[in-house]
Each structure stands twice: as structure tokens, then as C-alpha cells.
């Protein structure tokens, strides 16, 4: 599984990357805003951890929707989950910051189990 992290807080991004790598997920990039996140989508991730409030504002929900439409599994990671009310059109999982590592591991493992097998080689 290949993932991107959309997070503008350096320490939060490093923490999330560490947890994902322990789950056997290859982190292929980190973005701090919508432009960077959409550019990373060209790398064909399977998973994206997306914060709501980024360097360019409250763009996380739009990023999540855009990526989800291309088949990327989204996990929102935010200190303010109530901000997502009415914006989570794909009912993506939400993990509150600071990240509970076991909750993230469990969420990623569930997504891996539900992932459809693909014939594409990465």
C-alpha cells in the first residue's frame, strides 16, 4: 500500500509517517496544501491521511473529496473533528489529534483488508 500525508505541521507529519511505515505502508510523499496534495496524486497512492486546516486554509475536505473520487482511501486527521460535519461526503474515517497510534494502526489495517486486489504493479 502506498500513502501520502497531507499535513502542514512537520512533527505531526513525521509522527504519522512513522506509524504508517510500521504498518508496512510506503509513504510516497507529504504535502502542506491542496496544490501539493493534488500533485502527489499523480504518484497513485492508495491511502491519504488528510488534515483539515492546512497552509492554504480549510482545504482538507476538498482535497479528501478530490482524492476519494480517484479511488484513494481517505483518513482525516484533525484536532477539530467537528469541523468536518457536513464535509465528509465519502464518510471517511476521522482520527483526532494528537494521533492515537493504535487507532491509526487499526484503521489502516481495516482499510488494507477491505482494499480490492489490483493487478497494477507499483
Describe what this molecule looks like in 3D.
The chain is of the alpha/beta class. It has one domain: Rossmann fold (3-Layer(aba) Sandwich), CATH 3.40.50. It is built from four helices and five strands; from the N terminus they run βαβαβαββα. It has a five-stranded parallel β-sheet, with helices on both faces. The longest helix has 14 residues, at 101-114. The chain is globular, with a radius of gyration of 13 Å. The model has no long low-confidence stretch (mean pLDDT 93).
Notable traits:
122 residues; alpha/beta; five-stranded parallel β-sheet; globular; CheY-like_superfamily; Sig_transdc_resp-reg_receiver; Two-component response regulator; phosphoprotein
Q: What fraction, in percent, of the residue positions are helical?
A: 25-40%
Biggest beta sheet attributes: 5 strands, parallel
Strand proportion: 15-25%
What count of helical segments does DSSP give? Answer: 4
CATH topology: Rossmann fold
Q: Look at the structure and give the mean pLDDT.
A: 93
Amino acid at each position: 500500500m502506498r500513502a501520502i500525508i497531507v499535513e502542514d505541521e512537520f512533527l505531526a507529519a513525521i509522527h504519522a509517517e512513522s506509524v504508517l511505515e510500521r504498518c508496512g505502508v510506503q509513504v510516497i510523499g507529504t504535502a502542506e496544501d491542496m496544490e501539493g496534495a493534488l500533485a502527489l496524486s499523480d504518484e497513485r497512492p492508495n491511502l491519504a491521511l488528510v488534515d483539515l486546516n492546512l497552509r492554504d486554509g480549510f482545504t482538507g475536505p476538498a482535497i479528501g473529496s478530490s482524492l476519494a473520487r480517484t479511488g484513494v482511501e481517505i483518513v482525516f486527521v484533525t484536532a477539530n473533528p467537528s469541523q468536518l460535519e457536513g464535509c465528509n461526503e465519502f464518510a471517511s474515517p476521522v482520527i483526532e489529534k494528537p494521533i492515537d497510534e493504535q487507532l491509526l494502526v487499526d484503521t489502516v489495517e481495516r482499510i488494507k483488508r477491505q482494499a480490492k486486489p489490483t493487478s497494477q504493479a507499483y
